[in-house]
Write a structure and sequence with these properties.
This protein has 86 residues and is of the alpha+beta class. The protein is built from four helices and three strands. This is Excinuclease ABC subunit C.
Length: 86
């Protein structure tokens, strides 16, 4: 399985979209500051993830979620959660 995931920074509430084969290991890397794009934005919480059968599907989903339409989808999908976190 491969995963597409959304992290939310507890520091500034910004979202980060990523893709991985090992979600727990990758999340630990984010927490430890070993992922360059998110190094200064931790700590994080995982607010959403999807499982895909293969790598290509997971990366295609990541690309979609980073698009305008994907962001709109996430905003609707996570509407209640995002309203609680401000």
């Amino acid at each position: 399985m491969h995963y597409t995931y959304i992290l939310q920074s507890k520091k500034d509430n910004c979202l980060y979209t990523g893709c991985t084969k090992d979600l727990r290991k990758r999340f630990d890397e984010h927490i430890q500051g070993r992922v360059y794009p998110t190094r200064a934005r931790g700590p994080f919480k995982i607010i959403y993830y999807e499982a895909c059968w293969d790598r290509g599907d997971a990366f295609a989903r990541e690309k979609y979620l980073k698009s305008v339409y994907g962001k709109r989808y996430l905003k609707n999908r996570l509407k209640r959660f995002l309203s609680l976190t401000g």
